[in-house]
Amino acid sequence: MSQTQADTTVTRRDFIYLGAGAFAAVGGAAALVPLIHQMNPAADVRALATIDVDISAIAVGQQIKVMWQGKPVFVRHRTPEDIAAAEAVDLSALRDPVPDSERRANAEENGMDRPDWLIVVGVCTHLGCIPIEGRGDYGGWFCPCHGSHYDTAARIRLGPAPTNLPKPPYVFLSDSEVQIG
Amino acid sequence: MSHQSTYRPTGPFTEWLDKRLPVPRLMHDSLVDFPTPRNLNYWYTFGGILTFCLISQIVTGIILAMHYTPHVDYAFESVERIMRDVNFGWLLRYAHAVGASMFFFAVYVHIFRGLYYGSYKAPREVLWMLGVVILLLMMATAFMGYVLPWGQMSFWGATVITNFFTAIPLVGNAITEWLWGGFAVGNATLNRFFSLHYLLPFVIFGVVILHIWALHVPGNNNPTGIDVRGKQDTVPFHPYYTVKDGFALSLFCILFAWYVFFAPNALGHPDNYIPADPLVTPPHIVPEWYFLPFYAILRSIPDKLLGVIAMFGSIAILFVLPWLDRSPVRSLRYRPMTQIFFVGFVVACGVLMYCGGKPAEGVYVLWARLATAYYFAYFLLILPIVGLIETPRKLPDSIAKPVLPAPALAGGTPIGATAAPHTDG
Amino acid sequence: MLKATRTLAILLAAGLGLAAGAAQGAGEAKHPHAPPGGWSFEGMFGHYDKAAVQRGFQIYKEVCAACHGMEYVAIRTLGSPSGPGYSEDEVEAVAAEFRVPAGPDPQTGSLVDDIGLPRLRPALPSDRFTSPYPNDIAARAANGGALPPDLSVIAKAREGGASYIYSLMTGYQEPPPGVTLEAGMHYNPYMAGGQIAMPPQLVPDRVAYEDGTEASVEQMASDIATFLNWAAEPELEFRKKLGFMVISYLAVLSLLVFLAYRRLWRNVGH
């Protein structure tokens, strides 16, 4: 066997080994997709990712809790006093400074300017407890776990929570119906 | 290990680890440089295939358990949810259900291969017996797994099989109630079966480790059945047999995939898509195909207790097989008489499988009885007697001998092909 | 290679034989048959005939749903492109036609309305096709003691699948001489035992197809069987497509590994 022949042999052999090995590795990686993806939310769970809420029965000053994606969502029909209090706050004094105009229902995000409606995810941004309505020092919510106080725009005012209660994606389908999610 | 370790640490870390926990050395000695007879044919690839089956069942099973609910009111529904809503759930469930059949198919080939080449004979008795333990554990696991979807066959299969234990004199009913956790198969039964179905595969995994250990002490048997005499008889396990096993595994996966994707319910029974109903028994209760031969043995004996004894005996007898076969020659390749009886044995197993799926009446009972008689006679009469009276063919001098001067002998037929066993799994 | 071929041939014969071994006799019932054109969803490249699935759903909605639920099939899945493929609006409209249990009254916690019947509400796409009866006892009482089975997986729960449904729906006939029917039963040779509690449902033009197809008995039977097969195996199209890809991949892999094997063992006598 000449030197050249030997070289060619080695190259071809390496190629077929590498080729077979690489091809098997690709298949093995592809087989991981179903094994991993099965842990993502299933079709029935995803089907509940959007809910329609009828708000016609919520009087001014009232709040309802609805379940959305396994979490409570506060839908609050604010009084003029709530709105005035939220608007009067000096933003520089806030830990998570967001003006009330962006916290409440506005045309840009929610399809309708409705200062009287506040819709937020009711999960304390500290460690996940559910804040209680109408308690605390700022007329909004108070979290009983570690004493976070939220105001009437659900902004954090006092206590350990780092940020405001998050606003879920929602749009007004009509004056009386909101689609959350 | 029976051979000198050739492991050389590749760097300071592996050297450090080798003195403390020589796992790389163990892996190297048992999977890389393990000297393996050079003449193993494709029937020997099923050990690797079975390892794949076990791992595949464990992985898909752990995943299914994430979505399954072991409660009589929710089990069937949760399985349907897996099929419809869980991402790739249908694939995972079908792979698990078909995987059980593939596992048994492979294990039966593996067992018949061991029987044909005399792999149970000294010095591999413990290896063989561990294999029988694995078979028993597989059967228990498969049976309990089949109960979990809580369809009609799940429920009535569980009822019939657990009723075996009522055949035990005096304490039979007490044992059966203990198994059920009640006075019939119910929620308690489903819960414990789920728990044990999750546990047993890990027990199997442990016994498989022992099985491989017991394999690596005497080393592989081979189609000639003669002992390895030196380096010229062997090749390193890797890459020679990893690649060969890989090829066989790839072909096996094609069969596996064909069932999973194109005939996922062909090996199951339609009645198991009817939710369990304790008030209505299906007209024909049949176990999964891999239990049919044993089911046929059970039914071929008209007495309840004796039937159950015969069924368990048909597996128990495998434990003593190494001492029943008196022949000094291992491989049936060199045992012309036994070869013929072996073909008869495979046919008998096939007849039992066929009869187990048919109603226990008329001609099927007769066939099943004849096959049952042959099954036991093969172990209790034929192997002990024929082993002593037959004249074996001349054994080759060594494993390497018949293949080294190959060009001269030519004819084209390698020795492995002349005596491939005629089994159908 | 000869060895490999031979081993493989034996194994393949055995492996494929498993299917035959597992097939069970369907009792004394007549063997079901497919409609003359066969089923579009059979075979390696099987797929659902969308129009047939939609027509079949129309039959389910207008005929079957009066007695049969599909407890495991969610209404939203009607939008599946590998099934009926309805648009989102169409699915919502369909959902609104069905009534599902409403759960407890928010004020009183009661599960029943003013006259003691279960509280119902219009279904949402995320709901399932619940049984029209509040429970099995009510279902039996309304059907002369027979329980109309849930249809979610009926195509997988009967030997013959879609062909069984087709044969059963077209198979009603006068009982042969010597067969005495029990009270309230009908003769159908495809039913195990020959007697079925469900009266014949399909007569020509039982439904007026939205797509104008002529509603003959065979057409309707074929459509409802197609729909129920989809209900039982909604993953079928994806499964077969993926299966084709997986097996193609494995075939190439086998070839590559075989070449590597041949190359590796070239100089080893064995």
Structural summary, described in words:
The complex is a heterotrimer of chains A (181), B (425) and C (270). With 181 residues, chain A is α+β, with helices and mostly antiparallel strands. Chain A folds into 2 domains: 1-40; 44-180, Rieske Iron-sulfur Protein, CATH 2.102.10. Chain A is built from 5 helices and 10 strands, in the order H-H-E-E-E-H-H-H-E-E-E-E-E-E-E. Chain A has helices at 3-37, 43-46, 80-87, 100-103, 107-110; strands spanning 51-54, 63-68, 71-77, 117-121, 132-133, 139-143, 148-151, 156-158, 170-174, 177-180. A 4-stranded antiparallel sheet of chain A has the order 5-6-7-8, with no helix packed on it. Chain A is elongated and about 80 Å long. Chain B has 2 domains: 28-276, Cytochrome Bc1 Complex, Chain C (Up-down Bundle), CATH 1.20.810.10; 286-390, Helix Hairpins. Chain B has 16 helices and 2 strands. Chain B has a two-stranded antiparallel sheet. Among the domains of chain C are: 25-69 and 131-232, Orthogonal Bundle (Cytochrome Bc1 Complex, Chain D, domain 2); 235-263. The longest helix of chain C has 30 residues, at 236-265. Classes of the chains: A alpha+beta (181), B mainly alpha (425), C mainly alpha (270). The interface between A and B is medium-sized, with 12 and 14 residues.
Secondary structure blueprint with pairings:
The complex is a heterotrimer of chains A (181), B (425) and C (270).
Chain A (H helix, E strand, L loop, with lengths): L2 H35 L5 H4 L4 E4 L8 E6 L2 E7 L2 H8 L12 H4 L3 H4 L6 E5 L10 E2 L5 E5 L4 E4 L4 E3 L11 E5 L2 E4 L1
Antiparallel strand pairs in A: 1-10, 2-3, 3-4, 5-6, 6-7, 7-8, 9-10
Chain B lengths: L11 H9 L2 H10 L2 E3 L8 H22 L7 H10 L4 H28 L8 H23 L4 H11 L9 H9 L6 H30 L17 E3 H26 L29 H9 L3 H21 L11 H21 L6 H27 L16 H4 L5 H4 L7
Antiparallel strand pairs in B: 1-2
Helix pairs in contact in B: 3-5, 3-9, 3-10, 4-5, 5-6, 5-10, 6-7, 6-9, 6-12, 11-12, 11-13, 11-14, 12-14, 13-14
Chain C lengths: L1 H21 L27 H13 L7 E5 L13 H10 L1 E3 L18 E3 L5 E2 L6 H7 L19 H9 L15 E2 L7 E2 L20 H16 L3 H30 L5
Antiparallel strand pairs in C: 1-4, 2-3, 5-6
Helix pairs in contact in C: 2-6, 5-6
